[in-house]
Amino acid sequence: MKITRRSLAAATTALVLSLGLVSCGGGSADADKARTLQIGNGAEPLSLDPHQASGTWENRIIGDMLQGLTTDDAQGRPIPGMATEWSTSPDGLVWTFKLRDAKWSDGQPVTADDFVFAWQRIMTTTPPAKYASILY
Fold first, then answer.
1. Is the pTM of this model over 0.85?
2. d(Cα 5, Cα 8) in Å, to the nearest integer?
C-alpha cells in the first residue's frame, strides 16, 4: 500500500476529530457523586507515625493527613499552613504563631498544646525519631 501525503493527512484529520469527539463527551448523572482519587505511592508505608516515618512514600501519605504550622509554595518559600501568621523576637529565639481555627477528626479543636506535644514527643519518642537531630 502506497502512503501519500493526502492519505496521511486524511488519517491524521480523522484521528484528531475522533479524539476531539471522545474528549468532549457529555456529563453524566454521576457527576455529583463522590469520587475516589487513587495515587500510586511507590511502596507500602512502614509507619504512619510522623515521628517514625523515614521513607518518601510514608511522608507522602502523612503530608496528605497532617499539616504543619507552615508549608511551602511552588518556589519553596514558607506560606501559612495551620498558622495564619507568625513572628520572631528580635534575637530570633522566640517564634510566635497564630493558629487558624481547626478541628481534629473527632471534633476537638486544634490548640497550641498539640504543637507543643508534637515537638516534645519527637525529641523523646522510643525508638528515637530518625530525623529529630535536624531540629537542634
1. no
2. 5
